[in-house]
């Protein structure tokens, strides 16, 4: 083998090594990129979200399926709740503020856990008090309508008999579902979620 041939082979080998290194680095960068766009929360496997129809704070009939094409935040509250529900409402307002102009491209649905206490007036007042009047649909219905939705999404709500010192409350669990533009359940967030977590998830889904 003469020196010219050996020199050419060396150049070709070096070029192949460079291509291989670039490919490996590209794979790693893609993996890192994928990780950086992972949703926060418990993965729900992209299960289709079950549709329902209820009445919002303005007396309008609203279905979950109305919001295909938008990410949806689905949560469950009641207006007389003394602790978790007001905090959730405040965090949702912060999320809407964080999203800025993109807030109009996200739907927030809050399903009542108290068909008796969540009157049209109390729902409007609660929405105003937490600056969510025009950011969400606070959904109410009959006991049967709401019970069907609770069952579908794994909620329970049981009125607690008031005492002389305590007003009537509702014993309930909590849930916050993040649903994508195609109407699929993507992640579940516990009641201690942070506005930053939910904001991040929604920004990812807005890009998809």
Would you write up a description of this structure?
- The protein has 208 residues and is α+β, with helices and mostly antiparallel strands.
- The protein folds into 2 domains: 1-36; 42-207, Glutaredoxin, CATH 3.40.30.
- 40% of the residues lie in helices and 22% in strands.
- It contains 5 helices and 10 strands, in the order αββββαβαβαββββα.
- The protein has a 6-stranded mixed β-sheet, with helices on one face.
- β2 and β3 form a beta hairpin.
- α2 (84-99) crosses α5 (195-207).
- The chain is globular and about 45 Å long.
Helix and strand topology:
Elements: H1 3-36, E1 42-48, E2 53-55, E3 61-63, E4 72-77, H2 84-99, E5 107-112, H3 120-129, E6 137-139, H4 143-152, E7 157-160, E8 169-172, E9 176-179, E10 184-189, H5 195-207
Parallel strand pairs: 4-5, 5-6
Antiparallel strand pairs: 1-10, 2-3, 4-9, 7-8, 9-10
Helix pairs in contact: 2-5
Care to give the gist of this entry?
The chain is of the alpha+beta class. The chain contains five helices and ten strands. The strands form three sheets. The protein has a six-stranded mixed beta sheet, with helices on one face.
Radius of gyration: 25 Å
The separation of the N and C termini measures: 56 Å
Order of helices and strands: HEEEEHEHEHEEEEH
CATH architecture annotation name of the largest domain = 3-Layer(aba) Sandwich
Q: What is the tally of beta strands?
A: 10
Secondary structure: helix percent: 25-40%
């Amino acid at each position: 083998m003469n020196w010219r041939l050996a020199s050419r082979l060396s150049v070709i080998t070096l070029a192949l090594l460079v291509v291989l290194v670039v490919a490996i680095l590209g794979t790693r960068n893609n993996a890192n990129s994928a990780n950086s766009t992972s949703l926060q929360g418990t993965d729900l496997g992209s299960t289709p979200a079950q549709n329902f129809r209820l009445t919002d704070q303005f007396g309008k009939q609203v279905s979950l399926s109305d919001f295909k094409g938008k990410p949806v935040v689905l949560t469950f509250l009641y207006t007389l709740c003394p602790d978790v529900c007001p905090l959730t409402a405040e965090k949702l307002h912060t999320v809407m503020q964080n999203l800025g102009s993109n807030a109009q491209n996200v739907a927030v649905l809050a399903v009542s856990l108290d068909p008796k206490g969540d009157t049209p007036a109390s729902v409007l007042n609660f929405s105003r008090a937490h600056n969510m009047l025009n950011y969400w649909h606070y959904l109410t219905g009959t006991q049967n309508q709401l019970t069907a939705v609770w069952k579908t999404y794994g909620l329970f709500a049981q009125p607690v008999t008031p005492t002389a010192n305590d007003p009537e409350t509702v014993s309930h669990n909590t849930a916050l579902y993040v649903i994508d533009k195609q109407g699929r359940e993507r992640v579940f967030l516990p009641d201690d979620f942070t506005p930053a977590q939910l904001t991040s998830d929604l920004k990812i889904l807005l890009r998809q």
